[in-house]
Amino acid sequence: MPPTPQSPRPTDAELEILRVLWSLGPCTVRQVHDELSPKRDVGYTTMLKLMQIMTDKGLLLRNESQRSHVYRARQKETVTQKQLVKDLVSRAFGGATEKLVMQALSSKKATAQEIADIRKLLDEMEGGVQ
Amino acid sequence: MPPTPQSPRPTDAELEILRVLWSLGPCTVRQVHDELSPKRDVGYTTMLKLMQIMTDKGLLLRNESQRSHVYRARQKETVTQKQLVKDLVSRAFGGATEKLVMQALSSKKATAQEIADIRKLLDEMEGGVQ
DNA sequence: AGAAGACTACGAAGATCTTCGTACGATGCA
DNA sequence: TGCATCGTACGAAGATCTTCGTAGTCTTCT
Fold first, then answer.
1. Of B13, B83, B81, B93, whose CA–CA distance to B53 is shortest?
2. CA-to-C1' distance for B40 and C8, Å?
């Protein structure tokens, strides 16, 4: 199969927009702007411009069949998260994923449920088909 | 105690320099440049400028007692790694550290040893003083 | 001493990111 | 029909990041 075309790593502002789209599903600029206005005081045309640029970059897809264009994330949330984690692992941990995991775990009190979930994942990895 | 003064998140180029300093210990610009030259074709004065700016930002400390100034990372590697992980967790995972851990683990075949290490850490977290 | 080399400081260019103002077309309503 | 509103497109400004050239100082070697 063809490799997934690589989108550039989203910037901070772009990631905020992606998170809204992942959370709400496809949205107009207006919807994203209303959603983010409380925490980020940014003009409407700024948001529009950002989302246009993100579309050019391949981070978003745009449906222009309506007057108000409808945008959605091109990649699923988990795919982008995986890329970001992989990127951080290579930039800051020399590629050692388990070091990142240890750092993340040791800096956070996880609940018993979360610990159990992680254990289960480890079990699957060990017992798995390789 | 006074809170640790926050340094800005290092950029990609800055993180590369930090990694050299963490690995080799305090270095001159020349040493860092020699170390990075193979993988990054960048001029000497570029490296110098970057490290001067990093010093201004508080990412590096500089010893000027010699003609060739000696730079070192202000934060320990693990501290910066923790900050970067925390930052990514908040920007991309809505603060859910365990989601990042799961993503990291599921996208990597860990060795038996690494899995064992993580299990041990989980044991400590559960049995810990809490 | 004088030339060559190494070092720091600094200004500025080019790229990217974020922001907004303005222009202009669509829609909807008095 | 005419006007206010909402939408997109786009240029450009300001901030930051990365890059390098040049100038000036200090050291070393012949």
1. B13
2. 22
Residues 6+ apart with CB under 8 A from A117: B98, B102
Gap between the Cα atoms of B1 and B16, Å rounded: 31
Is residue A46 domain-resident? yes
Domain boundary among A73, A92, A115: A73
What's the number of domains chain A is made of? 2
pLDDT at A3 over 80: no
Q: Which residues, at least 6 apart from B35, have a Cβ–Cβ distance to it below 8 Å?
A: B20, B24, B27
Best interface-test mutation with A: which of B14, B81, B117, B126 has the largest number of A CBs within 10 A?
A: B81
The integer distance in angstroms from the CA atom of A105 to the C1' atom of C19 is 38
The ipTM is 0.89
pLDDT confidence band for B1 (50 / 70 / 90): low
Distance CA A79, CA A99 (A): 21
CA A93 vs. chain centroid, Å, equals 20
A91 and A67 share one domain: no
Q: Does residue B3 fall inside a structural domain?
A: no
Confirm if B86 and A107 have CB atoms less than 8 A apart.
yes
- Among A5-19, A29-43, A80-94, A105-119, the range scoring the smallest mean pLDDT is A105-119
Confidence band for A96, pLDDT divided at 50, 70 and 90: very high
Note down the domain range covering A43.
12-73
Nearest to A97 among B86, B108, B119 (CB): B108
Cβ-contact B113, B124 below 8 angstroms: no
Rounded distance between C-alpha atoms, residue A46 and residue A39, angstroms: 15
The reply to whether B1 falls in a domain is no
